[in-house]
Amino acid sequence: MDPKNLRMLIDHTGKTQKVIACELGITQQRLNNYVNGLREPDSKMLELLADYFNVTIDYLVGRGDHKKQKPEQEDAAQKNQEELDAKKQALYERILRYDQQTIEAMLTIADRISAAQREHP
Hints:
Blueprint: H1 3-13, H2 17-24, H3 28-35, H4 43-53, H5 57-60, H6 71-95, H7 100-119
Helix pairs in contact: 2-3
Protein backbone atom coordinates (compact mmCIF):
# COMPACT_ATOMS: atom_id res chain seq x y z
CA MET A 1 0.00 0.00 0.00
CA ASP A 2 1.10 3.57 -0.60
CA PRO A 3 1.17 5.16 2.89
CA LYS A 4 1.21 8.73 1.55
CA ASN A 5 -2.11 8.16 -0.24
CA LEU A 6 -3.65 6.82 2.96
CA ARG A 7 -2.28 9.74 4.96
CA MET A 8 -3.70 12.20 2.40
CA LEU A 9 -7.13 10.53 2.57
CA ILE A 10 -7.12 10.69 6.37
CA ASP A 11 -6.07 14.34 6.33
CA HIS A 12 -8.80 15.11 3.80
CA THR A 13 -11.50 13.79 6.13
CA GLY A 14 -10.53 16.16 8.91
CA LYS A 15 -10.96 13.28 11.36
CA THR A 16 -8.37 11.87 13.71
CA GLN A 17 -6.85 8.45 13.18
CA LYS A 18 -8.55 7.39 16.41
CA VAL A 19 -12.00 8.29 15.07
CA ILE A 20 -11.37 6.66 11.70
CA ALA A 21 -9.97 3.51 13.32
CA CYS A 22 -13.06 3.29 15.52
CA GLU A 23 -15.35 3.70 12.53
CA LEU A 24 -13.41 0.98 10.70
CA GLY A 25 -13.57 -1.34 13.70
CA ILE A 26 -9.78 -1.54 14.11
CA THR A 27 -7.30 -0.19 16.63
CA GLN A 28 -5.67 3.17 16.20
CA GLN A 29 -2.27 1.43 16.35
CA ARG A 30 -3.19 -0.81 13.42
CA LEU A 31 -4.26 2.18 11.32
CA ASN A 32 -1.13 4.06 12.36
CA ASN A 33 0.99 1.10 11.21
CA TYR A 34 -0.62 1.31 7.76
CA VAL A 35 -0.11 5.09 7.61
CA ASN A 36 3.56 4.74 8.54
CA GLY A 37 4.18 1.81 6.21
CA LEU A 38 5.02 -0.52 9.10
CA ARG A 39 2.32 -3.01 8.19
CA GLU A 40 0.56 -3.99 4.98
CA PRO A 41 -3.21 -4.44 5.02
CA ASP A 42 -4.63 -7.73 3.81
CA SER A 43 -7.10 -7.83 0.92
CA LYS A 44 -10.16 -7.54 3.19
CA MET A 45 -8.68 -4.48 4.90
CA LEU A 46 -7.81 -2.93 1.54
CA GLU A 47 -11.46 -3.36 0.52
CA LEU A 48 -12.63 -1.84 3.80
CA LEU A 49 -10.28 1.14 3.45
CA ALA A 50 -11.24 1.67 -0.20
CA ASP A 51 -14.94 1.63 0.66
CA TYR A 52 -14.49 3.89 3.68
CA PHE A 53 -12.58 6.54 1.72
CA ASN A 54 -14.56 5.98 -1.50
CA VAL A 55 -11.45 5.23 -3.53
CA THR A 56 -10.23 2.29 -5.57
CA ILE A 57 -7.85 -0.31 -4.21
CA ASP A 58 -5.54 0.66 -7.07
CA TYR A 59 -5.38 4.16 -5.62
CA LEU A 60 -4.53 2.83 -2.16
CA VAL A 61 -1.66 0.79 -3.57
CA GLY A 62 -0.47 3.69 -5.73
CA ARG A 63 -1.59 2.41 -9.12
CA GLY A 64 -4.34 4.57 -10.48
CA ASP A 65 -7.14 7.06 -10.27
CA HIS A 66 -8.97 7.21 -6.99
CA LYS A 67 -12.41 8.31 -8.13
CA LYS A 68 -15.12 5.71 -7.92
CA GLN A 69 -18.21 7.82 -8.44
CA LYS A 70 -19.56 10.38 -10.83
CA PRO A 71 -19.92 13.95 -9.51
CA GLU A 72 -23.67 13.60 -8.89
CA GLN A 73 -23.01 10.41 -6.92
CA GLU A 74 -20.35 12.22 -4.92
CA ASP A 75 -22.85 14.98 -4.10
CA ALA A 76 -25.34 12.39 -2.87
CA ALA A 77 -22.62 10.65 -0.88
CA GLN A 78 -21.59 13.98 0.66
CA LYS A 79 -25.19 14.72 1.64
CA ASN A 80 -25.54 11.26 3.17
CA GLN A 81 -22.30 11.77 5.10
CA GLU A 82 -23.51 15.14 6.39
CA GLU A 83 -26.77 13.57 7.55
CA LEU A 84 -24.86 10.77 9.25
CA ASP A 85 -22.53 13.27 10.93
CA ALA A 86 -25.55 15.19 12.25
CA LYS A 87 -27.04 11.98 13.65
CA LYS A 88 -23.72 11.10 15.29
CA GLN A 89 -23.57 14.56 16.87
CA ALA A 90 -27.14 14.22 18.18
CA LEU A 91 -26.31 10.80 19.63
CA TYR A 92 -23.16 12.15 21.25
CA GLU A 93 -25.11 15.02 22.85
CA ARG A 94 -27.62 12.54 24.27
CA ILE A 95 -24.89 10.29 25.62
CA LEU A 96 -23.42 13.19 27.58
CA ARG A 97 -26.58 13.21 29.72
CA TYR A 98 -26.40 9.49 30.64
CA ASP A 99 -24.95 8.11 33.86
CA GLN A 100 -21.80 5.98 33.86
CA GLN A 101 -23.65 2.66 34.17
CA THR A 102 -25.79 3.41 31.11
CA ILE A 103 -22.74 4.51 29.11
CA GLU A 104 -20.88 1.31 30.02
CA ALA A 105 -23.88 -0.78 28.94
CA MET A 106 -24.01 1.12 25.64
CA LEU A 107 -20.28 0.51 25.08
CA THR A 108 -20.79 -3.20 25.64
CA ILE A 109 -23.57 -3.21 23.05
CA ALA A 110 -21.43 -1.21 20.61
CA ASP A 111 -18.55 -3.68 21.05
CA ARG A 112 -20.89 -6.57 20.25
CA ILE A 113 -22.19 -4.81 17.15
CA SER A 114 -18.63 -4.11 15.96
CA ALA A 115 -17.65 -7.73 16.50
CA ALA A 116 -20.70 -8.94 14.56
CA GLN A 117 -19.94 -6.57 11.69
CA ARG A 118 -16.35 -7.85 11.48
CA GLU A 119 -17.61 -11.43 11.38
CA HIS A 120 -20.24 -10.70 8.74
CA PRO A 121 -19.09 -7.70 6.62
